[in-house]
Amino acid sequence: MNSVSRQSVLSRLGPGGLLYAANKIIAVASGKEDERWRGKDEGALFKRWRRTPSSVDSAPTVPVPTTPPSQPSDLLKFLAINALELSAPASDALLKSRSSEWFQLSGHPGSLAPAGPGTVWKRRAPGDHPAHNPERDAYEALAACPHMRSAIPRYYRELEYGGEHFIELQDLLHGFRDPHVMDIKMGTRTFLEDEVCNARARPDLYDKMVRLDPNAPTESEHAARAVTKLRYMQFREQRSSSAEQGFRIEAVKLPGQPPLTDLQKVREPLQLAATIARFLGNDERARHAIVSRLREIRDLFERSEFFRTHEIVGSSIFIIYDDERVGAWLIDFAKTRRVPENIVVNHRALWKQGNHEEGFLYGLDRLINIMETANLSKIGNEATEQPDVTR
Fold first, then answer.
1. Which end of the chain has the least Cβ crowding within 10 Å, N or C?
2. What are phi and psi of 148, to 5 degrees?
3. Which of 265, 229, 260 is nearest to 248 (CA)?
């Protein structure tokens, strides 16, 4: 079957039909149609079959137990899954089967969706177009970089579906069981320089500032009832730990609990340490593995030619661990930009308009230091006595 007719058939089947067809392929190949593969338990296919983890997929500290191969053959299972992964967004059955293990921790609601076993689709950022898609370009460049390909989610492809454009990436949550998850926005500056080049004072931004902190505007700003975009953005950075520490904790997910996303008050070093201690739960094994992984990422970052020539604005470090594995990756490159040829960035210097420094490595240094030095048992107790720190 050629690619055109194959795609045509697949499009007519639709996601639900593909799932049913995949189950039937397996049932027929195995010579039986027992209840594990019937439609009423369609999720069983994905619970039983997983891709074999690799060094690119994760940074495990404890090997994941492998299940001995069973009928039907692994090849037929692969073909069935491959057919399913050509359909997206995911079918209702697939979403239901993954609802207990997949969630979007932070970011723009609806920007991510599970696409197949082990993959997600991320919608192209508003304003980007095929000729200028910074996130796609960054992932393609980093995937080709021998230093950085293990520090990012695996990049598969760019595609169009239903008139919208997506990139397909490794689902970092895939393979973890009810994990601890933390999303950390990196840098002292999380806005692009061209976002704040307009010096016009704006009443709407003044109103936003006053709603957040009535005492924040200066006397002259109160008199004008307006502030510039740069003033407002820096005010927002100073309200979190970004400006002083070079990172801020965007969200935390603990096992069996809903995500904590309202973390704007977590800005002082002790508060950050308390939040990290709560995330680690006195697990020294996880702490040492995460610190080791963060040091590895920093070393790879510093050796990468890509990062010597780009500013990395608004990117995050995504940390996951459960009882068996630990992983951390760089994610989110929608605001990554190549710097002018006459500019040299070290990712630690103080930002001034035009120098393109964003403080990524400054923040990573601080994050590693807090992870290393925090007294988990002591700070963990303090965190439980002060629940408002992380709520």
1. N
2. -100, -15
3. 265
Between CA 40 and CA 32 the distance in angstroms is 16
Distance of alpha carbon 263 from alpha carbon 279, whole angstroms: 13
Pair 46, 171: CB distance under 8 Å: no
For residue 114, cis peptide bond before it (omega within 30 degrees of 0): no
Q: Which residue has the tokens 């720190």?
A: 389
- Name the nearest CA neighbour of 370 among 286, 281, 260, 287: 287
Q: Are 180 and 322 in contact (CB under 8 A)?
A: yes
Burial 247-285 (b: 16+ CB within 10 A, else e): bbbbbbbbeeeebbeebeebbeeebbbbbbbbbbeebee
Residues 6+ apart with CB under 8 A from 253: 103, 105, 179, 180, 181, 182, 259, 260
pLDDT of residue 164: 82
**In the block, residue with structure tokens 């073909």:** 79
pTM of the predicted model, to two decimals? 0.70
Asked if 154 and 56 count as a contact pair (C-beta separation under 8 A), the reply is yes
